[in-house]
Amino acid sequence: MDGNVRVRFAPSPTGLLHIGGLRTALYNYLFAKGHDGTFVLRIEDTDQSRYVEGAEKDIKESLKWIGMEVDEGPENPGDVGPYRQSERKDIYKDYAEQLVEQGNAYYAFDTPEELDQMRERLKKSGNPAPKYDAITRMSMKNSLTLPEEEVERKLDEGEDYVIRLKVPRRETVRFEDEIRGFVSFESKGLDDQVLVKSDGMPTYHLANVVDDHLMKISHVIRGEEWLSSTPKHMLMYEYFGWEPPKVAHLPLIMSPSGGKLSKRKAESEGIPINTKDYIEQKYEPEALVNFLAYLGWSPGDDTEIHSMDELIDLFSLDRVSKGGAVFDYPKLTWYNEHYLREKPAEELFPRVNEIANEHGIDPDKEYMMEIIPLMKDRVSKVEEFITMGHFFFEDPEEYEEQALDKWSDDSAELLSDYVDKIEQLDTDEFEATTLKDKIKEVIEAHDVGFGPLMMPLRVAVSGMGHGPDLTPTLELIGKEATIRRINTAIEKLG
């Protein structure tokens, strides 16, 4: 199989790339690379009414950001292009005509009003889900019910028509899914799918089958929502006399509160839904790769941290779960923290510096290179080096509500004593170990624990009740600023 594996990621440019689409792309990519195969990007833009300007660019930028290189696509075509379906329109028409000639498809001239009337009529007679199928087609206006010369005349006069697939009435369509095993559908549950619309554009179903065949796609790996369309595709492969690709339908991504992770649900649960959101919120791409890989797949052991290269070696379709995978947002944060900690300060500095500039801060590199290691164990996202660490650059203007709970009646007295002690230190003595010794002296003199002094000291210096290791923080902020901030806090909070 290796080397002959060709997979495609085939998004529609109808909006920004959704996180579920990114996972589909990732599974295709991991599978292709693990078999020395080819990862194809195909833009399925046949539905021109839903086309969104900039969506294709967003898809390409998202794949690039996360580290998936496209082997063949609109930017770097191979020899089976074009790679946009809107540029392949003539190809589909010929194949649709072939099905009509073979008797596997037909011309239908029904107007939208006539289709609505048919549905209303069937609903009244007790059919809750009426469709254009083997039974209803015989009472409609199509090339199966109209005299041949009338069909010819309508075509010659340029009357609007669609081409529909002639689905057999009583047949079982059975195929093997690489994730679900054998799946079967009764053809009586399927409608006569429109293959070519009245504007001459193919529907997803026809374009998909023709393109997968012509592009020599060996494995179709896509979301579970396409499972019910697969029998129609299998019928077309049979009618064309083509070998179908292997198919694998990925489990749904579920919301933490249950049910499918829809856009609405994601918004209400504070989960970013588009890849662009993750780029803008400055997530580590490695964290998202690792998280998405485990969203419906596992290597079968307890390991959780893997680079893209390791995932390529480990990934296999037989370890993809059938059931839905819950989008565990805290887990993504955990991954993000891990990958941030792994990165050296030198690598993080340019990004942190850029964020600092956005916040109107122009940090000294040497100073920043000391802050980064100190903050690393405390931050979940790269911008928190600045948003959480802003006190390294300016005195706190206010104090966090929950931090003020740490301020008690004797806080001012303890802090005053601490100021007396550190004021006597020379600038070169103002370092973490000495500052810690001075804390011990004060708490021993007052016979209290570390908390009663450390907590208000942190609040005074940073305005927050949490943060990086305290005495190295004081050392970095320096003697003058530390004393000034403590005195301000005593004055403001008493």
Beta-strand percentage range? 5-15%
Sequence stretches where pLDDT stays below 50 over 5 or more residues: none
The appropriate CATH architecture of the largest domain is: 3-Layer(aba) Sandwich
Total strand count, please? 11
In summary, what is this structure?
The protein is mostly helical and 494 residues long. It has five domains: 6-74 and 213-254, HUPs (Rossmann fold), CATH 3.40.50.620; 89-196, Glutamyl-tRNA Synthetase, Domain 3 (Glutamyl-tRNA Synthetase, domain 3), CATH 3.90.800; 263-340, Glutamyl-tRNA Synthetase, domain 2 (Orthogonal Bundle); 343-392; 402-493, Arc Repressor Mutant, subunit A, CATH 1.10.10.
Kindly describe this structure.
- The structure is a single chain.
- This protein has 494 residues and is mainly α.
- The chain has 5 domains: 6-74 and 213-254, Rossmann fold; 89-196, Glutamyl-tRNA Synthetase, domain 3 (Alpha-Beta Complex), CATH 3.90.800.10; 263-340, Glutamyl-tRNA Synthetase, domain 2; 343-392; 402-493, Orthogonal Bundle (Arc Repressor Mutant, subunit A), CATH 1.10.10.350.
- 45% of the residues lie in helices and 9% in strands.
- The protein is built from 20 helices and 11 strands.
- It has helices at residues 19-34, 55-66, 89-102, 112-124, 148-156, 204-214, 230-240, 263-268, 275-280, 285-293, 308-314, 329-342, 345-358, 365-375, 384-387, 411-423, 432-446, 451-462, 470-477, 479-493, and strands spanning 6-9, 38-41, 105-108, 162-165, 172-177, 181-186, 194-196, 219-223, 246-250, 253-254, 325-326.
- The strands form 5 sheets. A 3-stranded antiparallel sheet has the order 3-4-7. The protein has a two-stranded parallel ribbon with strand order 1-2.
- Strand 5 and strand 6 (181-186) form a beta hairpin.
- Helix 1 packs across helix 11 (308-314).
- A motif ('HIGH' region) lies at residues 11-21.
- Keywords: Aminoacyl-tRNA synthetase, ATP-binding, Cytoplasm, Ligase, Nucleotide-binding, Protein biosynthesis.
- This is Glutamate--tRNA ligase.
- Catalyzes the attachment of glutamate to tRNA(Glu) in a two-step reaction: glutamate is first activated by ATP to form Glu-AMP and then transferred to the acceptor end of tRNA(Glu).
- ATP binds at residue 263.
